[in-house]
């Protein structure tokens, strides 16, 4: 019995959200796909997928099983790719998507060492705060700052993403420093594309309503308004680390933060036949940032 093959079929069905689409990817008929999924469920003694005439969805057991299957298959593909690409050389155009501010601050300044080490690679870096369709838009990989626990793509964690409440000393001197999470309701809060902040605190998760005189879709506008003393903002330390270290910004309610599952990830479609240029860049960023990235040094997080 091809146990690993059944796992691969299951993973393709979940990713494609269709047995027919998975069959086309694997060059198998829908009947064969259905039979192998049924065989897998019978062997496990549990239903993995809920089937209707219009869609497939994971059961609770199926979701947990899928997360573990993806990890197993990724490890196998990684081992095979490591052997296959060991003698390969990074070459060609590397198309990368990244958030605008993060790409400007923490990717662009570090491209020269990577390109010097890989002279046959050309980087096409596209900056956008939208989540692009990596496969559909022809990207080799994307750098994303999010909670990707449920992503169907391969996601490698590059660095933590600490987000802190902060304001200028001038704003706090004029308006007072909040002593409790409830005090935020009496302050000007600045955010982009959000009407609530979901924070973790000493008493557990809390939701804070954001109501202020500024609405924007730009993270950089929020940053500039924050530095101008307009109010309190929730910012990533990779964005405001220098200002926190210099005293231009001060932390507010430091016992509250965003959940630790939000992190900086490199996201790509699959480890199968992973090109050396992608592997080289992902490894480079992972080593550059690490578990304690340079932007968090000296912040006492």
Features:
single chain, 301 residues, alpha/beta, Arc Repressor Mutant, subunit A, D-Maltodextrin-Binding Protein, domain 2, 3 domains, five-stranded mixed sheet, four-stranded mixed sheet, 13 strands, 39% helix, transcription regulation, transcription, DNA-binding transcription factor activity, DNA-binding, DNA binding
Give the arrangement of secondary structure elements:
Blueprint (H helix, E strand, L loop, with lengths): L2 H14 L2 H8 L3 H15 L4 E3 L4 E3 L1 H26 L6 E7 L1 H8 L3 H7 L3 E7 L13 E6 L7 E7 L2 E5 L1 H7 L13 E2 L5 E6 L2 E6 L9 H9 L4 E5 H10 L3 E2 L11 E6 L7 H14 L12
Parallel strand pairs: 3-4, 3-5, 8-11
Antiparallel strand pairs: 1-2, 5-13, 6-13, 7-11, 7-12, 9-10
Helix pairs in contact: 1-2, 1-3, 1-4, 2-3
Going by CATH, the architecture of the largest domain would be 3-Layer(aba) Sandwich
- Tell me the β content: 15-25%
**Fraction of residues in helices?**
25-40%
Task: Give the helix/strand class.
Answer: alpha/beta
Report the total helices.
10
GO molecular function: DNA binding; DNA-binding transcription factor activity
Domain HTH lysR-type: 1-59
Family: Belongs to the LysR transcriptional regulatory family.
Protein name: LysR family transcriptional regulator
